[in-house]
Amino acid sequence: MPRIVKEEEYAGKRNAILDVAQRLVYTKGYEQMTIQDMLDDLQISKGAFYHYFDSKQAVLEALVERMGEEALHLLLPIVHDPLLPALEKLQRYLAIANRWKIGQKAFILALLHVWFTDDNAIMRQKLRAAAIREIAPLLAEIIRQGIQEGVMTVTYPDQLGEVLASLVQDAGETIGALILSFDPERDDMQHVERTVAVYTDAFERVLGVPPGSLTLVDDQRLKEWFVSPRENEVEMKS
Question: Among 24, 54, 84, where does a domain finish?
Answer without folding.
Answer: 54
